[in-house]
Amino acid sequence: MSINEKELYSIVIDEIKSYGLKVYHKNLKDDEGLCDYKDNFITLHTKNKYTLIGCVFAYHELCHYLDYKKGKFVEFYNDSYLSNKYTRKEKEKMILEAEWSCYLFAKNKLKKYGVFKNYRNLILDKRWIKKHVLPVWVDYYLGSQKNKINNQTLFNKNEAMSILKDGNSIQAVKTSAEMLDL
């Protein structure tokens, strides 16, 4: 099947929309695509619009949505892999399994259009993914865990300071002190 990248991209986006998902294009800072599987939308980087790599990322994010809906990789999608009950190695394994699944999904979806005959550089193996991509994913996902913790800590601190500032009783001072671990 002979198809240009712009046509293929439109086909991929139409397929994604057929699942009831909205698709947005934005200049993403640290990502090529994001899937909000709870609010049913995918955001893709504007620079990849109408490109083959954009098709790969679009299908990749669709896979995250479908995996979430099917209950695959539950620990990954409900963020419980971030808890301290898992070692870093176990967390890396969960990230790799979910991301590798979506890479294969995208690759297999695009194979039917014959695009990989001309784009050998998109055929990656798991060793390459582990060496070059997994470290980025691990830093991204585990870094987001650190950001969530820092944001929660900051929120708690601000809440405690607000209680202390507005407080007019000993109980308010005690509550604020407990929240600040004093």
Sheet/helix structural class: mainly alpha
Which bin fits the share of residues in helices?
55-70%
- The oligomeric state of the chains shown is single chain
Main sheet strand line-up: 1-3-2
What global shape is seen?
Answer: elongated
Mean pLDDT comes to: 77
List strands and helices in order, with pairings.
Elements: H1 5-17, E1 22-26, E2 33-36, E3 41-45, H2 52-70, H3 74-77, H4 88-111, H5 126-166, H6 170-179
Parallel strand pairs: 1-3
Antiparallel strand pairs: 2-3
Helix pairs in contact: 1-2, 2-4, 4-5, 5-6
What can you tell me about this protein's structure?
Helix 2 packs across helix 4 (about 90-110) and helix 5 (about 125-165) runs antiparallel to helix 6. The protein has a 3-stranded mixed sheet. The model has no long low-confidence stretch (mean pLDDT about 75). By secondary structure, it is mainly alpha-helical. The protein has helices at about 5-15, 50-70, 75, 90-110, 125-165, 170-180, and strands at about 20-25, 35, 40-45.
Summary, kept brief:
The protein has 182 residues and is mainly alpha-helical. Helices cover 61% and strands 8% of the residues. The radius of gyration is 21 Å and the shape is elongated.
Q: Notable features of this structure?
A:
single chain; 182 residues; mainly alpha; three-stranded mixed beta sheet; 61% helix
